[in-house]
Every structure is written in structure tokens, then in C-alpha cells.
Amino acid sequence: MQFLNPALLFGALLFAVPLLIHLLNRQRHKTRPWAAMEFLLRAYQKTRNRLRNENLLLLLLRCLIPILLALAIARPVLQNAIGPLGQNGSVHHVVVLDASYSMGYQTGSGQSPFDKGRMIVGRLLEQLGSSNERGDRVTLVSAGVRPKFLVTNEANLALAKAQWLDVVKPEDGATDLTAAVAQVVASLREAAPGQTQVYLITDLQTRAFGKSFDDPKDDKNAAPQFQDTLRDLIEVLKKLIGTQVHLIDTGPLAALRTGGLCDNVQVTGIHLDQPLALARVPITAVATLRNRGAASASVMATLEVDGGEPVRKVVTVSPGAEVEAEFPITFRETGRRRIRVSVQNDNLEADDAFDMTLDVRERIRILLVDGAADDDPLRAYRALYQAILDPTGGKGSPLVTQFEVTVRDNLALLSGQDSPMSYDVTVLADVDRLNERAANEIQKALQAGKGLLCAFGDRVEADNYNLQLHKVGTGPMPFRLATKTGGLQGSSVPRAPVLTKPEHPLLREFDEDIYREIAQSIPVYQWFATEPDSFAANTEIVMRLTDRDQSPLLIAAPFGEGRCAFLLSAPAPADKKERWNRFDDPMIAFHLLHGLIKWLALPAQDPFNVVVGTQLSCSLPARPTDVEVLVPERLGGGKQPIAENSRALPFGRFALPPFANTVMSGIYVIDLQLDREAGKENWSQPFAVHVDPEEGQLSYRAHDEVRQVLGLPAILSDLPATLTAAADSKKSELGPTLLLALLLLVLGEAAMARFVSVRRT
Amino acid sequence: MSELTNYLDPTVLNKVAKLELRARLVVEGFVNGMHKSPYRGFSVEFAQHREYVPGDDLRYLDWKIFGKSDRYVIKQFEEETNLRAHLFLDQSESMSYAHEGGMSKFDYAATAVAALAFLIQQQADAVGLTLFDEEICRQVPPSNTRSSLGNLFNNLNQAKASNHKTKVGPVLHDLASQLRQRGLVMVFSDLFDKPEEVIKGLREIAQRGHDVVVFHVLDRDETEFPFERMTLFQGMEQMPELLVDPKSLRDAYLAEIEQFMDAIKKGCRKHRIDYVRVVNNTPLDVVLTSYLTARAARKKRRK
């Protein structure tokens, strides 16, 4: 038996009042001489026992009234109502509060589900603090981006309260409770067995229970089943000795108990209509807006570039639909830029804005290593590449050409006169061989996010490539070259390409069927075969040939932070009589090379646009020092230093020390100094962190459904009655029962007193 | 007449200090209030005259004297003149009890005794008085003279409740042996003694040919027990004290005292003794009527 207000038990001392009244009444008697004493004494002897019993019973009833009243207002709680006793009778309270951004949904009362959850936990701590003689312990878990154990098995409730005060709002993560509950199960299994109360406080959003809460396909009448392990984890918790699980719904539809859908319009993403943004070249930023609610919504979408003048557009979004809002932009300057698209705040603020960073370049710089540089200029490869990519020789407007082609012969590459690091894309056009220096430079450039296009032609020495670029599987070439196959034009059966991955971004220029048909009708006479068993796992074969072996023709693969593409039959200018194919045809050459170069110019990974919870990191050309992170306003703003040392990467690069506290969306700017040989160099990089739009699907489950699936006796909307003032017969607080008993006792006393009075008069 | 009848009320009489006056008021109030005389069946042997009192049988009115002197006189006969009335009055401590604002049992009984003595003497009968507690205290021999009546009143005035116990049985036994000539014996007592002892004493008197009338004098409190608050009852006659809630004992007490009174009453009836229960807040005419009834009954038995 425990008491929620044990101090009030002193009120039981009032039981002495009836005794005192009784004794005072005996003192305040009248004295009377009496003649018929013999009869009085005889009557007294005959009735003494009955009178004594009646009087004792009345006195007992009257003494019980204050005792029972004191007990009732001291609010006793049955021990077994909250589980079997631990060794010392203390209770371990484990609170898991859903801190996903859907918990920030503002209801009409201005209180979000998260606020309600905080209040509930605050009340729990207050109540424990007022009656912690038994030494209760608490574990507080904020189930945000990652489960965060604020305190674990902590008996110092003041410390727990202090920790809890730091949790003021939900994170911008998309959370299901599985990971948090799994960690709770693990910690409880390690802890000593005892009485444990687990409170899961969530909004009952479908996503909170895992990804799948759909009706089974086979039997539509059957109850929905979780496909994650949350149910199993709760079963495990329930089987732990002395453990009870309470699921508390604080969601906006908690009062209805029937679940449903709440309105929410969100910005789900931003993309550009071009893969690359170039300075002074108009480009369109396309924001996708989604209406998650059940009613049509007109919203004002606002675009801001680097926090500048906003551009607004009214967009109407049908229920459940996604629409695109296009904003034409022209960047005047190069560098890392920020774009933010937002809609006016609705009830869920976290997904009302979406940030993006992008690298705006002057042009795409291409190092063309011409394997036939010594040949007739009209027959050299540069004739084709320059004509297709840079017809103005780097002097035209960016509107005309986006590429700047620098032509070098192989010697420049082999001798290190020029380095791929200085270019966005390096093209090895039928380069016969590479030495180790050149291969290392290429790998270093790839490691830094540059691109490499290898076009294999007549001059290529397969063994050399296998040695320098394949490097037994460790180099950027993810396969081994075999032998030249096919023959010269007219001497062999021409083959045609097949677009095996027509949706691959590398082929984005072939966006119309006619171009695809043209591409697949281009004759290929000769090509390099590959060793079939040598392909690495992350290799994509984008084009094959129609020969018997369906030989790969265009192969794409990432390496480091960069991308590689391998064209097994090099395109050559039309004047080159021994050309291997007819890719020089302008109908195909333009689309093929533009697509290839633009794709290769982009890093393989974009570490600068990530979802909430992702660690911020990238590779750097020198060792970083004095690393600081300027966090967004949603995380409180201000700079936070990163004390961790950077990690060295291959080819002289260094990893930015990871910054993991990306629990809120927005722009994180990392400022550091690069420790170069020439001295320190300031370096700044913005990272855009955005929410997972799926968390904005405010679909809530019905209580009965959840109760049935999780196997819980009830879904609560507040703390269990064992801890609250409001009582419930099943909730084991004895106060109301005692009050009822008190009422009965008072009535019984009155009846007894009346009976005795009537009987005696 | 109505003023006189008021004097039958003990609360009124209580304000009258002199016993003799009290007795006279009682008798005159009683006589004026009667509608029918209880005097009937007088003997034919004339002995003397006496004053007419309402209720006397008009057959015995001496019309000659009325014709000569315009006075109402009744002819008395020999046997009537021989009536000897013995009045026994208990003066034990228990008789001193009085309810709040009322007469004590002793005062009430003394007034009744005085009234009866006055009435008897007026009828020219002999009346005597015996005061007793656990023994005989005082005695006035029966006489029909006025001086004797004065002596009786003096004794009554001097008497007061003693601090002795009631022992009715032995006293009656003693008195029975003293009563030589048959007569009317009237006992005024609360009879707080063992009922069988009381009956035994009364029986002895009755067996000696006396007509016995027992006036069982009780206080209103003793018959109603109306107390409410916690009370310490201090027992009279060396009885212990008892602190008790009177309400809780009321029923049992009343049952006890009723049982006691029934025992006395049944014992009296068994031995043809008149039993009159008198509570000291009831008018005294009950006493006088009871006397007259007893007198008439006695006369019938003599016939």
C-alpha cells in the first residue's frame, strides 16, 4: 500500500475526537439522589452488556469516520495495482515520449501532442517527487531522430526534472517507436528485476507504430497487423516480471478515439530542371507541394535565394495530391547557394519549409586528353568533342555553351603538367596508356567528386588500363577490359546499342522516344569486350550491344565522391576513317556527350542536402581546423564547435569531422580553416537539412485498433489512475472506494445512533 | 367550588405550608367536588348525629333537626362510630425523594394522611397514626376526639423523612401484633423493600381482621424516569451510586419497577388487600376516594 498524500494520514489522529467527546460527556454529568436505586442497579446489571456493546460499536464507528476520511484523502494506492513489489518496493518508471515532428501539430487549444506529453511527464515527476519515500526511479526517453535516454534508472528526481526541462519541443525527425522501445527492452533486461511501469506517449500516428499498418491483403476482415517488431517488443515488455505497459494518446484526435486524418500542406522537395546550375544561366527551381489533408487547399508558396527578396506564388493543391510550383531563377554569382521554399505556417510547422543548397558554377570545365592529338586535327578526337561541347572555344556566352573544354595530349597527363583535379570532368579519349602518376591523379580527382569519362578506341592498351585503373578491383574502373571485338566499317556486322536503363540520369538528354530510337539505331562496328566476371557490385550497364554476348557499351559507376563512365566504343570525328561507330552523328553525339558530361560533373553523392538526423560530413582537400557549426534557428541558433579530429582519407584528402546533432531542419553552415601548405585558408559550407515528408501524413489510428494490435487493455489519454487524482475503480487508487466506504460508514453510524436512540427513548 | 377543588392538586398544595390547613383544603375540595355520596348502608342502631357531607345518603338525613334548626345532620349508628382507622406512614429516606418542583413522596403521603385523618375525625371515627422507617418511630393511638386529631397533626408536622432504610415487612409484622381492635389500616409507603416481605407483613395485618388499604406512593420520576443527560445517581438508604446515560437504562428500569409494583399488587389482591398506586403528582382525591370505597366495602362485609 502506498499513499499519494501521506502527510494527510496525520488526520487519522482525529479518531480521538469522539473519544474525547465521550470522556467529556462523562465529566459533565448531573448528580441526582435516587430512591429507587435497587431497581436502577438491577436494570443496569441486566442491560450492561448490551449497552456496552452498543456504545462500543457506536464509538468505534465514530472513531473510524475520521480515520477513513484521512485514509481517503491520503489517496492510498494498492501495490499490486502497479505490479508486484520490487525488492525495496520502489517502482521504475520508464517514459518514452514520441518526439517526431508530427507531435508538434498545433491543435485548437494551442497545445501540441508533444506539449501534452510533456505536461503528463511533468506531472508524473511532480507526483513521484511528492511521494518518493519508496525511492522510485525514472528513465526518460525522448524518441526523436534517435532514441535519447535523458536519464536512466535515476532515483534523483530533481536531476530527472532538470533534464526533462531541456526537452521543450519535438525534433524534426520522422520516428517510429520501435527503435526506442527496443532500447528500453534491452535496458530493462539488463536491469535488476522489479516493478516497472512503461509509458509510451505518442499521438497514435500510423507512422509511430512502424511503416506498415495496412490491412492484410488476404483477409480484409482480419485485424491489421504490424509488420515491424513493435508489437513483439511490447509483448516482451509485458512478459518481463512486474512490468506494465501504458500507451497514452496525446494526439489531436485522442478525444475521438476513432482515429482519422488531419489537414497538412507541406513542401516535400526542391529540384532544378537542369542537373547543374550555372551562373547567369536561367534555371527553374521546382518545389513540390503536397496536400496530406482531406480538403483542397490554396497556399502561398514563397521562394528565397540566400535569404534574399522572396518570390511568391499561390498554388492550389487537391486533397492527397502533389503539385509543383516553378520559380525561374538566374544566379548571378558562382559558389554554394541556398534555396528555401516555404508555405505559410499551418498547424504543423516543421514541414512548411524546405531548404536546398547547390553549387553554382561558371561552366563545366572539361579536360579532354586526346589520344589522337598527334593526328590530323580533323581526325583528332578534339574535333568532335569541341564541336559538340564547346563550339565557341570557351569564349561564348554561357547561354550558348555550358562547357569549357581544355585539350591536352597524353603526355601532359602522364607528366603531370595538368591535373584532373583542376577540372570538373576528365575525358580520356582513346588514350593509349596511363602511368601511375596519371592514374593517381585521376583517382584523387574522383575522390574529390570529379568525373571521368573513358572512351575506349583503337589505341587503348587494355592491359595498361586493367593495371592502372582497374587495379585488381580497387581502381575506378569496375571491370577488366578484354579484347577488341568486331571489325572496321564494312568488314563486320554492325551492332546497335540497346538502352538497358533508359531512365538513368546519364541518358536524361534522351528524354524523347525519337532520340532513344535514334540512339538504338546507331551502328557500332568495333568495341572492347569486357571480362564478364570482373564487374564490381555497384556497376551499372546503361547500354549494351546487340551482339551475341550483349556486350556492355556504356558503363557507369561511382568512385570516391565522383562518378565514372566508360564508353566501350569511342566516338570519333567523321573524318576518322577507322572509326568504331557512328556516334559522331550530331543527332546522337550531342545528346550522348552532353548527358554524359553533365552527369559526370555532379558528385556521386550530395552530402550537402540531407534528411534530418543525417551526420554532416564531406571530404576536404586539406586537414580542417577550428571547425564550427552555425546551427539553424529551429535548433536555437548560434555556433557550436566540433572538437573531434578529422580523419585522413586516401589520396591526401580529409574527412570533415561529422556533426550528428541535425535533429532540426534548416541550414547548417560549417566554417573551418583548411591547413594547406601555403597557409590557413577559410572554408565555409552550408548544409541543407530537411524533414522526411512522410512524417507529415497525419493519419491517426483508432484506439480499438491499436489496442487490439498491441494487445493492451486500454489506450489512455492521461497517466494511469494509480498516479493521478482522478480515480477509477480499475485503476487501483483506493481513495474513491474509501470515500464510498466512508459514506456507508456515516450512514451506518447515523442509522445505528438512531436505532439506539429510538430504542432507549 | 372550583377554587377548592384546585387544592387536590399537589402542586397547589405544596404551596400551603400548614398541614392542618392543607388537610382541610383537601377534604373540603374533595367533598365539594363529589356528585354522589359514597356513604351508604349505615347501621340502624343510632348512636349520634354528625354534620352532613355531600355524598351522604339522604335517607339518613335527620329531617327533624333540619326542620328545627335548618341544619343538615346525618344520623350515625353504633357500628359506624366504632370504626378505627390506623394510618401508617413511611418516613424512611427513600420517601424524601421529590421530582423537580414537586412534593416529596413523604410530604405527599403526609398530606394524604392528614386529609384522611381530618375526614375520618369529621365523621366521628377514630383515627390513629404510626410513623415508621426500619422500625416504628412514633405512634398516635386511634381516637375520634379533636384533641387527638390535633396531636396527630403535631406529630405529622414534626415528622420528616429520616435517613434510615425502608423495612416495611418487619414493621408491619410488629404493628400487626399491636392492633387489638379490628379496623381500617391504611399504609402509605413506597414499599421499597422485598415484595414478599411487604406482602407478608400486610397479610399478617389482614389476617387479623383488619381492612387494609395500601397506598403505594411513588414519585413521578420513579414511574417515568424522564432523565436525558448523563447522570450520577446517588443511591439513598446506603445504596451505591451509578453514573449512567439514563436514556439507555430507561426501558430496563421501568420494566424492573413495573415488575416490582405488579408483584406488590398481585400479593395484595391475593390477600384481599386494597392496593392503590399513587404518584405524587396526581390529585389527592384518589386517596380519599380509595378510603371511602374501602370504608363502604368494609361495611358491606360486616353486613
Protein architecture, described:
The complex is a heterodimer of chains A (761) and B (303). Chain A is of the alpha/beta class and 761 residues long. Chain A contains 14 helices and 37 strands. In chain A, strand 5 and strand 6 form a beta hairpin. In chain A, helix 5 packs parallel to helix 6. The relative contact order of chain B is 0.15. Chain B has twelve helices and ten strands. The two termini of chain B are 35 Å apart. The chains are: A alpha/beta (761), B alpha/beta (303). Strand 2 of chain A pairs parallel with strand 8 of chain B.
Descriptive terms for the model:
heterodimer, A: 761 residues, alpha/beta, Immunoglobulin-like, eight-stranded mixed β-sheet, six-stranded mixed β-sheet, 14 helices, 25% helix, elongated, B: 303 residues, Rossmann fold, two-stranded antiparallel sheet, disordered N terminus
What is shown here, in short?
The complex is a heterodimer of chains A (761) and B (303). With 761 residues, chain A is an alpha/beta fold.
CATH topology of the largest domain in chain A: Rossmann fold
Oligomer: heterodimer
Radius of gyration of chain A, taken over Cα atoms and rounded to an integer in Å:
39 Å
Which structural class should the secondary elements of chain A be placed in? alpha/beta
What fold name goes in the CATH topology slot of chain B?
Rossmann fold
Overall structural domain count of chain B: 1
Question: CATH class of the largest domain in chain A, anyone?
Answer: Alpha Beta
**Uncertain segments of chain A:** 80-88, 222-228, 724-731
Number of domains of chain A: 5
Taken from the alpha-carbon principal axes, the silhouette of chain B is globular
| Average of the residue pLDDT scores of chain B | 79
Number of strands of chain A: 37
Largest sheet report of chain A: 8 strands, mixed
Mean pLDDT of chain A equals 86
Give the N-to-C terminal Cα separation of chain A: 44 Å
How far apart the termini of chain B lie comes to 35 Å
Radius of gyration of chain B, rounded? 20 Å
The CATH architecture of the largest domain in chain A can be named as: 3-Layer(aba) Sandwich
